[in-house]
Write a structure and sequence with these properties.
419 residues; mainly beta; Pectate Lyase C-like; 2 helices; 42 strands; globular
Length: 419
């Protein structure tokens, strides 16, 4: 059987050239796209498709986000409609990606879509509006979008691409709808050897996804977090990545993310926490990472009640060193109520501002710190003292965490079942 392969060889191009190649391969049943060296001006996302593999030329295939333009609305907009009305229609053209928000319609209530027709002040879009947007609530439309985007995609691959986010000429977009790479309800997608830098939002954000593989990527100097695992995503592997100098967290586990592996990553010099966990983010393995020089904690378990806590997480073999560069009192900080957090074989070194190795709120339960952890230059290894009943030393022998333990019960909240 002949393999479907399309080669793209242009030194300067647009997203339209790349999208045409993706769509052609998809319509022919799937295959591979080989993109040579070149700079591609992105007026809209490169939209991934099921069964299509995209290979760039490492370090030389650059997708650059276009400069943002924006306009206030000229009329209020209704949920479920497929057009927007803008005061400055002259700024927009068919084929542009846009982001629609107002003061109460942000995050998942924002809409990202592509303009498919234009008539007077009206712009037709390919996705329905996710909210009612009103002029009184400062509704606006801007050409913000993910540089690479995947909706409902299975078994795709992106490799060897550089994403230049051009954040100085763009407005911030929330990770619920945007990112240098953004995936929604995607399954079995592989992202490897990708550089995402200077995007006005998160580097890589994925929501309601399963069994992704994100490896050997560098995510740096973005305006949001580096990696944003979100909204029920399950069974994802993130490994061998360099996540540095992002304005917010290095890795932000959002809502109900489960059974992931974060392994052998460098997470350093980020503007908030190295890793942030909370809101039913459970059953993860965080293993053999180097987490250093972040502005706040190396690992932060966010405040929650017992229903919403980030329970059953294994923290193993990490080098945690000299965080709390700007604020914070502990390298690891566990707010209430988080339970069953297991620490094994970690090397924790306190810096000038981090007094404690591990701090836990007095409502936490079963914070297990094995004797094989190493604490260096810490005023105290643990706070409060081990006599408080919060801390234990014996880790259960059987820990059913990480991607290996994904099953139908762990993904049914996404409305899918595995065969």
């Amino acid at each position: 059987m002949k393999k479907n392969i399309v080669e793209v060889k242009v030194e300067n191009g647009t997203n339209e050239i790349l999208q045409h190649a993706v769509d052609s391969i998809y319509k022919s049943g799937g295959g591979s796209i080989m993109i040579g060296p070149g700079i591609f001006e992105m007026q809209d996302s490169l939209h991934l498709k099921t069964g299509v593999k995209i290979y760039g030329t490492q370090g030389r295939t650059v997708l650059k986000k276009s400069r943002c333009v924006s306009s206030d609305l000229s009329a209020d907009l209704g949920y479920g409609h497929y057009d927007v009305s803008v005061k400055r229609p002259d700024l927009f053209n068919v084929g542009m990606g846009i982001h629609i928000i107002d003061d109460s319609g942000r995050g998942f209530y924002g809409t990202v879509a592509t303009i498919i027709w234009k008539n007077g002040d009206k712009l037709g879009i390919d996705k329905m509006l996710n909210h009612d947007y009103a002029r009184i609530r400062h509704a606006r439309v801007s050409t913000e979008f993910p540089v690479i985007s995947g909706y409902y995609v299975r078994d795709a691959l992106v490799q060897g691409i550089t994403i230049e986010g051009n954040k100085d000429e763009n407005d911030f977009i929330d990770g619920c709808r945007g990112g240098g790479i953004f995936l929604l309800q995607c399954h079995g997608v592989n992202l490897s050897n990708i550089l995402v830098e200077k995007y006005a939002g998160d580097g890589i954000s994925y929501q309601q996804c399963t069994r992704l593989l994100i490896e050997n990527c560098e995510i740096r100097n973005n305006s949001g977090s580096g990696l944003h695992p979100g909204s029920g995503s399950t069974g994802v592997i993130m490994r061998n990545c360099k996540i540095i100098k992002n304005d917010n967290d290095g890795v932000f586990y959002c809502l109900r993310v489960g059974f992931t592996l974060l392994e052998n990553c460098e997470i350093s010099n980020n503007g908030n926490d190295g890793i942030s966990i909370g809101a039913r983010d459970t059953d993860h393995i965080i293993r053999e990472n180097t987490i250093t020089d972040n502005a706040r904690h190396a690992i932060y378990f966010r405040k929650a009640d017992e229903v919403m806590g980030g329970h059953r997480n294994l923290i193993e073999g990490n080098i945690i060193s000299e965080n709390c560069r700007k604020i914070g009192m502990g390298e690891v900080f566990i707010e209430n109520v988080n339970c069953d957090i297991w620490f094994r074989k970690n090397q924790i070194t306190c810096g000038k501002k981090s007094k404690y190795g591990i701090v836990a709120n007095n409502l936490c339960k079963r914070i297990c710190i094995a004797k094989d952890n190493s604490f260096v230059c810490c005023k105290k290894e643990k706070m409060p003292s081990i006599k408080s009943g919060i801390f234990e030393e014996v880790i259960p022998k059987k820990l059913s965490v990480g991607p290996e333990y994904v099953n139908n019960n762990s993904i049914r909240h996404l409305g899918i079942l595995e065969e």
